[in-house]
Amino acid sequence: MNNKYIISLSFGNYLKGDGGVDKAIREHQEMYNYYGISYVHISPFLPKILNKKAFCKANFLLYSIVIDGNFYGLFDEYEISVIINRFKGKIKAIHIHHLKKFKLQFLMNILSSCSVKKYLFIHDYYTICKQPNLLKNGEYFCGIEKKKSQKCKDCLYYNSIDEHQLLTKTILSKFTDIEVVSPSEIAAIIWDKTYDDYIPLSKIKIIPHQKAIGENKCFPAINNKIKIAFIGRFDENKGSREWKQFVNSVDHKDAALDLFYFGMSNLSMDRVKNVRVKVNKSNPNMMVDKLREYGINCAFLWSICPETYSYAYFEAFSANSFIITNLDSGNIAAMTKKNKNGIVFDNISEFIKLIEDFECFKKKLIAFSESNIFGPLHYKNNDDILSLLDEKEYTLFINNLSSRIPKPIKRLLTCMYSKQHNLGSCYKIGDIIDDA
């Protein structure tokens, strides 16, 4: 460990997760470590083997701690306070990546423990609504209006909005110097519609997850068959229903279209060829490489919710695949319009109608391939994130937290958790805490 620390908070252990939040945190940890700054990640843990309601009612909650990519174990709230106290003046910032599962009092104690800069990251819209994708009744995007609004009244999440926003509003009210960080302009705009009374849009920092390097001047060949691929996780939020609707509409054009799925979901559809793609730390460019290898002309990115970033969009852009998306897809639609590398449709029927005029569709692809709109050759992690540090003095963590959890229970749960998720042998508690 180093003599400078970032405290990072989110809902889960990023070592075992593969979502966008986990990916971003993993990238941050690696960048900070590269520049000699240790990264301490804290996430709530509720054991599956115990009764969760009873565990919470007893005011018990364990937390997973990962330091510099190493799992250190499960700790109770008292131990967390001792750990933070031990770091003393070495903490340089607190990064809040997600508020899900955190107790208000515990979170406020952590944030009050250090008079350093605090940053709230927008990865989804959980700070606005329990429905983190802003899907009305879990079905379609409810719009960018402030929540809650009159439009929310017939949504099943309406009655919970005030209570749900309490944690975020409490943080923004108490820590008025907190800064909000968004990976895109569109995510900042949507978020600030609800919280503009606390932080003006102009004050939100826009730091995309990646920086583009070079230009890819090679376009996929346009042959007699146009290759269209659904890329990424195959679920309804990402447009699986619309993809199926599209696939079922092109029976008579099998000779003109080659349809693919690129990703890890178990997909079985007639006429759709599966290409197994797993992007991970050891192979971060696999999606781009496969899109280029197969010469995919079009990437179908039909998210029905407003993406805050979308790694899939930037992978497709780097492969010079023409983007097919819709107005509600958030940063996908915003970037497609900005980069002029695709079409943003009002609905799936519009896309199907265009495909029916196949020659017209093909001409659009030819025009795109002959343009000077080049995707990046590759990307690197955006090291602008390294600017989110502070050098203020440290103040002592005030320990008025919940009661202790017996050591044998913690040790048993830690071992089971580590084994279940292949996290390896966890470090001894004594490595980071004097009094466990």
Descriptors:
2 domains; alpha/beta; 13 helices; Rossmann fold; 18 strands
Brief digest:
The chain is an alpha/beta fold. It is built from 13 helices and 18 strands.
What does this protein look like?
This protein has 436 residues and is of the alpha/beta class. It has 2 domains: 5-211 and 383-431, Rossmann fold, CATH 3.40.50; 226-381, Glycogen Phosphorylase B (Rossmann fold). Helices cover 31% and strands 19% of the residues. It has helices at 20-34, 52-57, 77-87, 104-113, 161-174, 185-195, 240-248, 286-294, 311-318, 331-339, 348-356, 358-369, 407-420; strands at 5-9, 38-45, 62-67, 70-75, 91-96, 118-121, 135-136, 140-141, 179-182, 205-206, 210-213, 226-231, 257-263, 272-276, 298-300, 322-326, 342-345, 378-381. The strands form 4 sheets. It has an 8-stranded mixed beta sheet with strand order 4-3-2-1-5-6-9-10, sandwiched between helices. Strands 14-13-12-15-16-17 form a 6-stranded parallel beta sheet, sandwiched between helices. Helix 9 (311-318) links the parallel strand 15 and strand 16 (322-326). The model is unreliable at 392-404 (pLDDT under 50).
